[in-house]
Amino acid sequence: MNNVLGFLEAKLMPLAAKTAQQRHLGAIRGAYVSFMPFIIVGSILLVISSFPNQAYQQFMSQAFGESWSAIIEIPFNAVFSTMSLFISFLVAYRLAEHYGEDRISCGILALVAFLILTPFIKVAENGGITVMPVEWIGSKGLFVAMIGSLLWTELFCWLKRKKLVIKMPDGVPPAVQE
């Protein structure tokens, strides 16, 4: 047993420490930590609405009406159907925080870039109605949201370091110039 613990401490702990210090993984970790309260509340509400006990389901239906579970699932659906939007913003926010750059600008840039990368669907050819399916802004779009946020924030920070920014005239307020 001591040999296994010694091996873990000698070989895996330095690797784990280096991984924990990596800025991109730290930004993703920080984004999920920031979003965790919403995930917990949504998950608890899902357990309340879908508890697998027939007596519980009957009691809740009698106490709150037949559509009680649909009402409780609204916050769950709101959290998990829009998760990629929040994670996209938060990953960029956390990475910009690491670089000391404007966090809000990076977050908004990443969010807009994610929305650009999200596929739209034409519902009616004649009417020209185009919609964005909720499935891609939910958990299905998390990978694109995280990778896109990291890439766009890196690009934003690189452009700022190289001073490749738009110079505003003197009459523009300082808050807008940044």
Automatic annotation (TrEMBL):
Transmembrane segments: 31-51, 71-92, 104-121, 141-159
Species classification: Bacteria, Pseudomonadati, Pseudomonadota, Gammaproteobacteria, Enterobacterales
Matching PROSITE patterns: PTS_EIIC_TYPE_3
GO biological process, one term: phosphoenolpyruvate-dependent sugar phosphotransferase system
Swiss-Prot/TrEMBL keywords: Cell membrane, Membrane, Sugar transport, Transmembrane, Transmembrane helix, Transport
An annotated GO cellular component: plasma membrane
Localization terms from the record: Cell membrane
InterPro entries: PTS_EIIC, PTS_EIIC_3, PTS_Sugar-EIIC/EIIB
Keyword Cell membrane appears in the UniProt entry: yes
Bilayer topology term: Multi-pass membrane protein
Protein name, as recorded: PTS sugar transporter subunit IIC
An MF annotation (GO) of this entry: protein-N(PI)-phosphohistidine-sugar phosphotransferase activity
Positions of the PTS EIIC type-3 domain: 8-178
PANTHER family: LICHENAN PERMEASE IIC COMPONENT, PTHR33989
Claim: Transmembrane helix is one of the keywords in the record: yes
Coiled-coil intervals: none
Top-level lineage group: Bacteria
